[in-house]
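ok trying again, last paste got cut off:
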Amino acid sequence: MATPISRFNRILLILMVVLYIISLGAFTYLNWSLDPEHVLWMHAVNALILSIPLVLFYGSAYVLISAWREHKLTGQINPRLAKVIHWAPRIAAILIIFFVSLFSLDVFGMEGTPLELLGGFLIHSIPSIVMILMLAFAWRRPAVGFIAFLIAGGFFLRFVILGGDLAHFLLFSGPLLLISALFYADWRWAKPAPPPTTSVAI
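nice, full thing came through this time. structure:
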């Protein structure tokens, strides 16, 4: 059973890498076309920052699909993949919080007194603060993480539905929904299978 799973995972990995490269290339080209005057290193930094949610999106999709297939074929997942599923949503949540927090720094490029800038920074940091609290509660309770990040992903998804913005889905709501799915997998799939019961003849 291990051979078809391994072959499937290789094909899936190649697909996710190709989709990541296409997505990053599209975002980089869009940024360049909107502001071609930016120097090369600025575009490189933007591409590096955009890689955070894109790697989370396609990496999470890869882990979830491989785990779903293995669980479907064998009824459980191997201990190595279970360990990956345990840590993946927690690390992914930290990275998406870091990514969202970067947008709060734009406040310091505006005009205003230091106190006004600090107040604006704190207001713009509310989504990051909320997600930090969500992660703190979900760290040892994957069921909480599943529900909390599902709600967060749904909140960001409204911008995709109302605005029809695929970029917003890849950068915000998509990673959050996949983090929720990873917490679900950690909650429901990553548990070891119960030992077989043996009947004792009397």
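cool. Residues 2-188 form one domain. The chain has one domain: 2-188.
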